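ok, trying the design again with the full structure, not the truncated one.
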């Protein structure tokens, strides 16, 4: 009975997202046509997050370790445990941003338009696709657009999810371009919806998000990429462990 209610809640959530998306479709389509309109796409994405939250009882409590200078550009590295992570990160960021995500999202009926415009699709199995994606990432950063890269590359298939090994790409790029890393820890989004919610459904609840202080890279060389990767991993892992033992 409980699982059936959670499955129904997931359907309600998906309907809520679809409803507000298609309601905003003319504006989203308009904003997708020129890079100068990408900030509008971010605002519309935030509206989707707020509407789906309000109508399904899913809320995001965001805590910042310190005030963030939103006039700067960052490579944002969150852990990835739920499809809700896209919504929570969208609410947490206050500047113009885009996501890097798997190339299959190009065919997603809701996210496809974002990945054909502001966001960056990547096929991690293709070296050429990865090269093009990171080249485009560099261009976005040089344009002053913050880029969100989930360094695990995918959502953990374990339940409860465990923090997975990080990919090296975003950390090497951050050092090469002298862009600070902004780690974000999603503490418990998986309890509200794990992955897509297809197995356990979803439920109303509060998702706790912690935005860490930026990690500067201007003093680093590319040989420090592994050290930077380990530092960000440990920052997120420590926060997850602290939350688990509360």
């Amino acid at each position: 009975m409980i699982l059936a209610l959670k499955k129904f809640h997931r359907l309600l959530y998906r309907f809520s997202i679809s409803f507000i998306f298609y309601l905003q479709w003319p504006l989203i389509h308009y904003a997708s046509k020129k890079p100068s309109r990408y900030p509008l796409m971010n605002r519309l994405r935030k509206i989707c997050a707020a509407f789906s939250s309000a109508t399904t009882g899913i809320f995001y409590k965001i805590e910042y370790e310190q005030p963030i200078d939103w006039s700067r550009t960052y490579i944002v590295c969150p852990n990835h445990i739920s499809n809700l992570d896209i919504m929570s990160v969208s609410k947490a960021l206050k500047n113009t941003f885009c996501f890097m995500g798997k190339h299959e999202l190009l065919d997603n009926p809701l996210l496809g338009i974002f990945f054909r415009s502001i966001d960056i699709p990547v096929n991690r199995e293709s070296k050429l696709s990865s090269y093009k994606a990171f080249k485009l990432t560099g261009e976005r950063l040089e344009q002053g657009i913050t880029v969100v890269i989930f360094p695990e590359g995918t959502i953990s298939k374990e339940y409860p999810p465990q923090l997975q090994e990080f990919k090296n790409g975003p950390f090497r790029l951050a050092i090469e371009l002298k862009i600070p890393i902004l780690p974000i820890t999603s503490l418990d989004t998986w309890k509200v919806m794990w992955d897509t919610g297809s197995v356990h459904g979803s439920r109303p609840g509060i998702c706790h998000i912690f935005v860490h202080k930026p990690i500067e890279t201007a003093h680093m060389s590319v040989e420090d990429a592994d050290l930077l990767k380990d530092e960000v991993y440990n920052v997120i892992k420590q926060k997850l462990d602290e939350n688990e033992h509360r």
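Keeping the full-length input from now on. The first strand starts at residue 58 and ends at 64.
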